[in-house]
Amino acid sequence: MDTIPLFPLSTVLLPYGRIALQIFEPRYLDLVSRCLKSDSELGAGFGVVWLREGQEVYDPENESTRLAQIGTLAKIVDWDSLANGLLGITIEGERKFRLYSSRQQADHLHVADVEWIEAERAIALPEYGEEMKILLRQLTEHPHVQRLGISADVNDISTLGCLLTQLLPIPENIKFKMLIETDPMDRLQYLIKLLDEMSQ
Questions:
Q1: Assuming Cys at both sites, which of 83, 90, 131, 169 could form a disulfide with 78, CB separation 3.0 to 4.6 Å?
Q2: What are 147-183's pLDDT values in tens digits?
Q3: How far apart are CA 194 and CA 161, in angstroms?
């Protein structure tokens, strides 16, 4: 079991998925600084967990938070100073973890004891997956997504399903359901069914 810092978000992060963040709170500026300076496997990342209840920004008047029990280790893949003066980072999801206990430090940063979840098996794309791959390519060509630098050149079901889940405009509770899914084939089949319902 490892102890890692947490970054609770109202957005679910999946393995292979990317999210752009604006950093301004001292607790996260310090975290990002440590990550960028670290060359160790765990020290260079942090856990992203879905914020089921509470606020992303620290509020001393309302400290009630409820975190999801499954999260994703995130690594910083790009950073820049934004026009508004804030620090912008792009994170990419890696391996999943199960959260056993969490606590807040004096600087209000959440940390947690986690157990890593075994990586999903690699399964080659079936023929019907080519249509989903075309959809992924279309999504990655959107101007807002292009900035994230996501490659649509995928050849396995797990990566395809996670990326589509990350990019499609679906509710976060559905994205979390896709995150905790352990069978990549079932995830892809669910997405196909969901897309059929959305097109009706």
A1: 90
A2: 888 988 898 999 999 999 999 999 999 999 999 999 9
A3: 12
CATH superfamily of 2-116: LON domain-like (2.30.130.40)
Q: Chain centroid to CA 38: how far? A: 20
Nearest to 161 by CA among 56, 32, 28, 17: 17
For the chain, the domains span: 2-116, 129-199
Q: Yes or no: say if 3 and 112 are a contact pair by the CB < 8 Å rule.
A: yes
Structure tokens given for 167: 């990019």
Closest CA to 87 of 36, 29, 135: 29
Rounded to two decimals, the pTM is: 0.89
Q: How far is residue 160's CA from residue 16's CA, in Å, rounded to a whole number?
A: 9
